[in-house]
Amino acid sequence: xxxxxxxxxxxxxxxxxxxxxxxxxxxxxxxxxxxxxxxxxxxxxxxxxxxxxxxxxxxxxxxxxxxxxxxxxxxxxxxxxxxxxxxxxxxxxxxxxxxxxxxxxxxxxxxxxxxxxxxxxxxxxxxxx
Length: 129
Description:
Elements: E1 10-13, E2 16-17, E3 21-34, E4 45-59, E5 76-82, E6 91-105, E7 113-120, E8 125-128
């Protein structure tokens, strides 16, 4: 069984790595559709559509023109999520997303941080580097 440190991960927009990543999350879900009919003694369901969404948290870097600065609200991007890194043989997830949120925060005793939220647009694929 293989385990990995979170520090191995990265996220790329197309082939461009996003700078200053602190963390990311990727969530897949699937709908269920009820198909219970009169006379049934228990509810029954069938699988419906799948979807996914994600977040990306970074230290804000205004010079990251092909990464953070390319993540604009409403834009459609191809994002590649690499939970174990981007070395040969590593597993990653890829898909088209629509950017749905962007937040930049700052405090007097901390770093300027940015968080981005995305919603999948189509299917999420799993691949190997």
